[in-house]
Amino acid sequence: MKIILLILFIFSSFSYGHGANKGDLMGTWRLVEYAVDEKYQDVPNPTPIKMYMNGEFVIIFYLENKMNFNKGRYVIKDGKVTETILSSSTESLEGEVISFKPNFMGDKNSFKINIDFGDYQTFERWEKTYCDVVECAKIRTRNN
């Protein structure tokens, strides 16, 4: 009986999501799934990349064949991430604050977020860039 309970505990820790803690975001992430108002979109090519380190973040992405970026600071409090954009290729985004509660998978190598922007909602799933080399939990709703 103890073995069965141990197996169930181990399985559940890798299958169910976990909120963000200090250090969970550190590293380089790539966007693997994206939806607007529950309508899945193709992930842009080249794939958007986001880096988190020591309270700072940067995201690099292409729109209309032009490289764009947002750079700023982030804090984690009670499992919620708050990003403040300090510099951007789109000046009107500077000073914007975006908050979300990431749902990390058990291995902490992927997370999903839902963000309500008022006029629309987005769903994003991010995974560590090293998941091409190291086996990570691949819990996606689409094959990308």
- End-to-end separation in angstroms reads 40 Å
Helix content: under 10%
CATH architectural type: Beta Barrel
- The assigned structural class equals mainly beta
Oligomeric grouping of the chains:
single chain
Give the CATH level 1 class: Mainly Beta
CATH topology title:
Lipocalin
Domain count, please report it. Answer: 1
**β content, as a range?**
over 45%
What is the overall silhouette?
globular
Q: Poorly predicted ranges (pLDDT <50, ≥5 residues)?
A: 1-17
State the order of secondary-structure elements, H for helix, E for strand. HEEEEEEEEEE
* Mean model confidence by pLDDT: 84
Q: Can you summarize the main beta sheet?
A: 10 strands, antiparallel
Number of helices: 1
Layout of helices and strands:
Blueprint: H1 2-15, E1 27-36, E2 39-41, E3 49-53, E4 56-63, E5 66-77, E6 80-88, E7 97-100, E8 103-104, E9 110-116, E10 121-128
Could you characterize what this model shows?
The chain is mostly beta strands and 144 residues long. The chain has a single domain (2-132), classed as Lipocalin (Beta Barrel). It has one helix at residues 2-15; strands spanning 27-36, 39-41, 49-53, 56-63, 66-77, 80-88, 97-100, 103-104, 110-116, 121-128. Strands 1, 2, 3, 4, 5, 6, 7, 8, 9 and 10 form a 10-stranded antiparallel beta sheet that branches. It starts with a helix and ends in a 16-residue tail after the last strand.
Name a few traits of the molecule:
144 residues, mainly beta, Lipocalin, 10-stranded antiparallel β-sheet, 1 helix, 10% helix
